[in-house]
Amino acid sequence: MRSGSNVEVCLPSELGFEKVALSTAASMATLMGFSADRVEDLKTAVAEACINAIEHGNRLSDTLSVSIVLSTTDDQLEIKVLDHGSGVSKHPESPDIDRKMHGDEDPRGMGMFLIQALVDEAEWYQGPPGKSFVRLVIRLDKENK
Amino acid sequence: MQAATKVTERTATAASGSPITILAFAGDIASTSKDAMMEAYHGLGASVSKVLLDFTAVDYINSSGIAIIIQMLLEASRAGGRTIAIFGLTPHFNKVFTMVGVAKYASMSPDEPTALATL
Fold first, then answer.
1. A92/A88 Cα distance (integer angstroms)
2. Contact: B2, A37; criterion CB under 8 Å
3. Full-model pTM
Protein backbone atom coordinates (compact mmCIF):
# COMPACT_ATOMS: atom_id res chain seq x y z
CA MET A 1 0.00 0.00 0.00
CA ARG A 2 1.34 3.46 -0.91
CA SER A 3 2.19 5.81 1.92
CA GLY A 4 -0.30 8.65 1.94
CA SER A 5 -3.25 6.56 0.86
CA ASN A 6 -6.59 7.81 2.12
CA VAL A 7 -9.92 6.06 2.42
CA GLU A 8 -13.17 7.67 3.54
CA VAL A 9 -16.22 5.83 4.79
CA CYS A 10 -19.57 7.40 5.54
CA LEU A 11 -21.96 5.63 7.91
CA PRO A 12 -25.60 6.22 8.79
CA SER A 13 -26.18 6.89 12.48
CA GLU A 14 -27.49 3.41 13.12
CA LEU A 15 -25.88 0.97 15.51
CA GLY A 16 -24.36 -1.98 13.72
CA PHE A 17 -22.87 0.05 10.88
CA GLU A 18 -19.73 0.47 12.97
CA LYS A 19 -18.79 -2.96 11.66
CA VAL A 20 -18.37 -1.48 8.18
CA ALA A 21 -15.78 0.91 9.57
CA LEU A 22 -13.95 -1.72 11.60
CA SER A 23 -13.77 -4.02 8.58
CA THR A 24 -12.28 -1.22 6.48
CA ALA A 25 -9.76 -0.34 9.19
CA ALA A 26 -8.84 -3.99 9.61
CA SER A 27 -8.27 -4.40 5.87
CA MET A 28 -5.98 -1.36 5.72
CA ALA A 29 -4.03 -2.36 8.84
CA THR A 30 -3.53 -5.87 7.49
CA LEU A 31 -2.32 -4.53 4.15
CA MET A 32 0.17 -2.33 6.03
CA GLY A 33 1.59 -5.35 7.84
CA PHE A 34 0.14 -5.01 11.32
CA SER A 35 -0.09 -8.24 13.29
CA ALA A 36 -3.41 -10.00 13.80
CA ASP A 37 -3.42 -9.05 17.49
CA ARG A 38 -3.02 -5.38 16.75
CA VAL A 39 -5.67 -5.54 14.03
CA GLU A 40 -8.10 -7.00 16.60
CA ASP A 41 -7.25 -4.16 19.01
CA LEU A 42 -7.84 -1.63 16.26
CA LYS A 43 -11.19 -3.19 15.31
CA THR A 44 -12.49 -2.78 18.84
CA ALA A 45 -11.17 0.79 19.14
CA VAL A 46 -12.72 1.83 15.82
CA ALA A 47 -16.01 0.14 16.69
CA GLU A 48 -16.19 1.98 20.02
CA ALA A 49 -15.31 5.31 18.40
CA CYS A 50 -18.07 4.84 15.83
CA ILE A 51 -20.60 3.75 18.45
CA ASN A 52 -19.85 6.90 20.47
CA ALA A 53 -20.26 9.03 17.34
CA ILE A 54 -23.53 7.33 16.38
CA GLU A 55 -25.06 7.34 19.87
CA HIS A 56 -23.67 10.43 21.57
CA GLY A 57 -22.43 12.64 18.73
CA ASN A 58 -25.26 12.18 16.25
CA ARG A 59 -27.82 10.91 18.77
CA LEU A 60 -28.93 8.18 16.36
CA SER A 61 -30.32 10.81 13.95
CA ASP A 62 -31.30 9.35 10.59
CA THR A 63 -30.37 12.66 8.93
CA LEU A 64 -26.77 12.74 10.18
CA SER A 65 -23.86 10.58 9.17
CA VAL A 66 -20.56 9.58 10.75
CA SER A 67 -17.44 10.09 8.66
CA ILE A 68 -14.37 7.93 9.02
CA VAL A 69 -11.14 9.05 7.37
CA LEU A 70 -8.31 6.52 7.27
CA SER A 71 -4.86 7.78 6.29
CA THR A 72 -1.60 5.90 5.95
CA THR A 73 2.02 6.91 6.18
CA ASP A 74 5.04 4.62 5.99
CA ASP A 75 4.78 3.70 9.65
CA GLN A 76 1.33 4.53 10.94
CA LEU A 77 -2.38 4.31 10.29
CA GLU A 78 -4.44 7.30 11.42
CA ILE A 79 -8.19 7.09 11.74
CA LYS A 80 -10.47 10.07 12.36
CA VAL A 81 -14.09 9.49 13.30
CA LEU A 82 -16.15 12.67 12.85
CA ASP A 83 -19.67 13.37 14.07
CA HIS A 84 -22.08 16.27 14.49
CA GLY A 85 -21.95 16.52 18.26
CA SER A 86 -20.09 19.09 20.34
CA GLY A 87 -17.23 16.74 21.05
CA VAL A 88 -15.80 15.17 24.15
CA SER A 89 -14.10 17.32 26.78
CA LYS A 90 -13.58 14.84 29.59
CA HIS A 91 -10.62 12.51 29.91
CA PRO A 92 -11.45 8.80 29.62
CA GLU A 93 -11.74 7.18 33.03
CA SER A 94 -10.88 3.58 33.82
CA PRO A 95 -13.98 1.53 34.54
CA ASP A 96 -14.37 0.54 38.18
CA ILE A 97 -15.70 -3.01 38.09
CA ASP A 98 -16.31 -3.03 41.84
CA ARG A 99 -18.56 0.04 41.60
CA LYS A 100 -20.34 -1.47 38.62
CA MET A 101 -20.87 -4.71 40.52
CA HIS A 102 -22.36 -2.80 43.43
CA GLY A 103 -24.68 -0.82 41.17
CA ASP A 104 -22.87 2.43 41.98
CA GLU A 105 -21.64 2.95 38.41
CA ASP A 106 -23.39 2.44 35.08
CA PRO A 107 -22.38 -0.97 33.64
CA ARG A 108 -21.81 0.87 30.35
CA GLY A 109 -19.32 3.70 29.80
CA MET A 110 -16.23 1.68 28.90
CA GLY A 111 -15.86 2.75 25.27
CA MET A 112 -13.44 5.65 25.67
CA PHE A 113 -11.30 3.64 28.06
CA LEU A 114 -11.04 0.79 25.57
CA ILE A 115 -10.22 3.15 22.72
CA GLN A 116 -7.37 4.74 24.65
CA ALA A 117 -6.06 1.40 25.91
CA LEU A 118 -6.04 -0.36 22.54
CA VAL A 119 -4.34 2.14 20.21
CA ASP A 120 -1.04 4.03 20.36
CA GLU A 121 -2.68 7.47 20.34
CA ALA A 122 -6.24 8.57 21.01
CA GLU A 123 -7.24 12.22 21.09
CA TRP A 124 -10.65 13.84 21.19
CA TYR A 125 -11.24 17.19 19.48
CA GLN A 126 -14.18 19.52 19.98
CA GLY A 127 -15.46 21.46 16.99
CA PRO A 128 -18.53 22.80 15.22
CA PRO A 129 -21.15 20.34 13.93
CA GLY A 130 -19.52 17.78 11.68
CA LYS A 131 -16.05 18.75 12.85
CA SER A 132 -15.80 17.09 16.26
CA PHE A 133 -13.73 13.98 16.04
CA VAL A 134 -11.63 11.37 17.74
CA ARG A 135 -8.24 10.65 16.21
CA LEU A 136 -6.74 7.20 16.58
CA VAL A 137 -3.23 6.16 15.56
CA ILE A 138 -1.50 2.81 15.47
CA ARG A 139 2.19 2.62 14.61
CA LEU A 140 4.12 -0.13 12.94
CA ASP A 141 7.16 0.57 15.14
CA LYS A 142 5.11 -0.62 18.13
CA GLU A 143 4.86 -4.07 16.58
CA ASN A 144 6.43 -6.83 18.67
CA LYS A 145 7.15 -4.50 21.57
CA MET B 1 -28.28 -3.71 11.24
CA GLN B 2 -26.81 -5.66 14.13
CA ALA B 3 -26.80 -9.45 13.70
CA ALA B 4 -29.42 -10.98 15.98
CA THR B 5 -28.17 -12.67 19.12
CA LYS B 6 -29.20 -16.29 19.48
CA VAL B 7 -29.20 -17.87 22.89
CA THR B 8 -29.50 -21.60 23.45
CA GLU B 9 -29.62 -23.34 26.79
CA ARG B 10 -28.19 -26.75 27.53
CA THR B 11 -26.94 -28.65 30.54
CA ALA B 12 -23.66 -30.36 31.34
CA THR B 13 -22.01 -31.94 34.34
CA ALA B 14 -19.08 -30.36 36.11
CA ALA B 15 -16.02 -32.31 37.19
CA SER B 16 -17.44 -32.14 40.68
CA GLY B 17 -20.57 -33.93 39.45
CA SER B 18 -22.88 -30.98 39.91
CA PRO B 19 -25.22 -29.94 37.08
CA ILE B 20 -24.23 -26.90 35.06
CA THR B 21 -26.48 -24.77 32.90
CA ILE B 22 -24.83 -23.42 29.78
CA LEU B 23 -26.12 -20.38 27.93
CA ALA B 24 -24.55 -20.44 24.48
CA PHE B 25 -24.54 -17.21 22.52
CA ALA B 26 -24.21 -16.77 18.77
CA GLY B 27 -24.17 -13.62 16.63
CA ASP B 28 -23.27 -10.16 17.88
CA ILE B 29 -23.13 -9.21 21.54
CA ALA B 30 -24.14 -5.55 21.55
CA SER B 31 -26.81 -3.27 22.99
CA THR B 32 -29.43 -4.95 20.82
CA SER B 33 -28.63 -8.26 22.51
CA LYS B 34 -29.96 -7.20 25.89
CA ASP B 35 -33.48 -8.61 25.60
CA ALA B 36 -32.38 -11.99 24.25
CA MET B 37 -29.58 -12.41 26.79
CA MET B 38 -31.40 -11.18 29.87
CA GLU B 39 -34.61 -13.05 29.02
CA ALA B 40 -32.60 -16.26 28.76
CA TYR B 41 -30.88 -15.50 32.05
CA HIS B 42 -34.12 -14.59 33.82
CA GLY B 43 -35.67 -17.79 32.48
CA LEU B 44 -33.24 -19.95 34.44
CA GLY B 45 -34.78 -21.80 37.34
CA ALA B 46 -34.12 -20.50 40.83
CA SER B 47 -32.35 -23.77 41.65
CA VAL B 48 -29.66 -23.16 39.01
CA SER B 49 -26.54 -22.32 40.96
CA LYS B 50 -23.82 -22.59 38.31
CA VAL B 51 -24.03 -20.99 34.88
CA LEU B 52 -21.53 -21.09 32.05
CA LEU B 53 -21.67 -18.46 29.34
CA ASP B 54 -20.45 -19.87 26.02
CA PHE B 55 -19.03 -17.33 23.56
CA THR B 56 -17.55 -19.87 21.13
CA ALA B 57 -19.89 -18.82 18.31
CA VAL B 58 -19.55 -15.07 18.94
CA ASP B 59 -17.14 -12.97 16.90
CA TYR B 60 -18.25 -9.42 17.68
CA ILE B 61 -18.62 -7.97 21.17
CA ASN B 62 -18.68 -4.28 21.99
CA SER B 63 -18.69 -2.37 25.27
CA SER B 64 -22.49 -2.31 25.39
CA GLY B 65 -22.44 -6.08 25.12
CA ILE B 66 -19.91 -6.36 27.92
CA ALA B 67 -22.21 -4.16 30.01
CA ILE B 68 -24.98 -6.76 29.60
CA ILE B 69 -22.66 -9.44 30.92
CA ILE B 70 -21.75 -7.21 33.88
CA GLN B 71 -25.49 -6.76 34.50
CA MET B 72 -25.85 -10.55 34.58
CA LEU B 73 -22.95 -10.85 37.04
CA LEU B 74 -24.48 -8.10 39.17
CA GLU B 75 -27.84 -9.89 39.31
CA ALA B 76 -26.16 -13.19 40.16
CA SER B 77 -24.22 -11.51 42.92
CA ARG B 78 -27.32 -9.87 44.34
CA ALA B 79 -29.28 -13.12 44.19
CA GLY B 80 -26.48 -14.83 46.10
CA GLY B 81 -25.29 -18.36 45.65
CA ARG B 82 -25.11 -18.33 41.87
CA THR B 83 -21.75 -18.62 40.12
CA ILE B 84 -21.24 -17.47 36.55
CA ALA B 85 -18.21 -18.47 34.51
CA ILE B 86 -17.22 -17.75 30.93
CA PHE B 87 -15.58 -19.75 28.15
CA GLY B 88 -14.96 -19.58 24.43
CA LEU B 89 -13.81 -15.98 24.13
CA THR B 90 -11.22 -15.21 21.48
CA PRO B 91 -7.82 -14.23 22.89
CA HIS B 92 -8.62 -10.60 22.00
CA PHE B 93 -11.89 -10.52 23.90
CA ASN B 94 -10.33 -12.46 26.75
CA LYS B 95 -7.90 -9.54 27.01
CA VAL B 96 -10.67 -6.94 26.75
CA PHE B 97 -12.80 -8.64 29.44
CA THR B 98 -9.75 -8.72 31.69
CA MET B 99 -8.98 -5.05 31.01
CA VAL B 100 -12.45 -3.92 32.12
CA GLY B 101 -12.39 -6.15 35.20
CA VAL B 102 -14.89 -8.87 34.31
CA ALA B 103 -12.29 -11.54 35.13
CA LYS B 104 -12.43 -10.44 38.76
CA TYR B 105 -16.03 -11.64 39.03
CA ALA B 106 -16.20 -14.51 36.51
CA SER B 107 -13.58 -17.12 35.77
CA MET B 108 -12.69 -17.31 32.11
CA SER B 109 -11.66 -20.54 30.37
CA PRO B 110 -10.65 -21.21 26.79
CA ASP B 111 -13.12 -24.03 26.22
CA GLU B 112 -15.99 -26.01 27.73
CA PRO B 113 -14.01 -28.94 29.19
CA THR B 114 -11.65 -26.55 30.94
CA ALA B 115 -14.54 -24.50 32.26
CA LEU B 116 -16.36 -27.60 33.52
CA ALA B 117 -13.22 -28.76 35.29
CA THR B 118 -13.03 -25.52 37.25
CA LEU B 119 -16.61 -25.63 38.57
1. 9
2. no
3. 0.93
